[in-house]
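This is your field. Pick holes in the following sequence-structure pair:
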Amino acid sequence: MSFKIGSAPCSWGVEDANDPHNPAWEKVLDEASQAGYKGLELGPYGYLPQDVELLQNALAQRDLQIVAGTLYDDLVSPENFQNIISKTHVTCKLISKLPKASQVDGQSYATPYLVIIDQVNKVRSPFAGHPDKAPRLSTDDWNQMMKHIREIGKITSEEYGIRSVVHPHAGGYIEYADETIRLLNDIPSEVAGLCLDTGHLYYACMDPVQWLKKYADRLDYVHFKDIDIAVYKNVINRQIGFFEACKENVMCPIGKGIIDYEAIHKTLHEIKYKGWITIEQERDPRDADGSLADVRESLKYLEKIGY
């Protein structure tokens, strides 16, 4: 078997741990297990319990394991640096003390990972999906962000034995082709790898198949999403924010959207990718009652076409 498939709390609309509309964390674990998943990401900082014994018992009861933690934050501001370092330590301590997630023979780095994402922000979010219009960081700000990522990667590797992977994300300052290429030039492979997300690639006008092929040597981890093309065209034409688009259901179950997952399956085999794939479907947390059906449908579709 080349792949193992996991899920993530964002498929229940959980993007901000403090959102009052979030479903209970027990519901997310229950439904991920009921849908047939064996792996799960932690989701936003503080959403799942940070008490190791409590979380370990909750996962074991549902036959789940944590495949990645997430550092989703402002990676640019010097004023936020100590905050992200603190979150890095807390998250890595937690996932390093949990039972090790199962591995796929031949995967580049052992799970779990720390997924590093520059958060969706007010400046860039309205330009998600508009590479020609989106303002870029100044050279000084970009270099500051790269310095922060290098420090995070050093901490995760040297202190916890955890691989950091950077995730280009719609609405943040690492989103488009030029920014992703610049990131890979500035961050050595030994410091951090790459997490490519098929949905965010498409949203940012980047062909998922081409990018998986071109950057296979830096690819440590993969996220899957699918996009409702009619909704996508509508929200792009209106130039609304990324999470506003998600609340309008721009993301849909795998196999229901525009992304060709049979071609991606072929590509992953061609590049000899081995490891975890995490399915995500960002949505409004107030619509979380529809999550179980959707995450189950996505998994069944991928299983049907050979994943």
Summary: The chain has a mean pLDDT of 97. The domain at 3-304 is CATH 3.20.20.150 (TIM Barrel). The two ends are 9 Å apart (CA to CA).
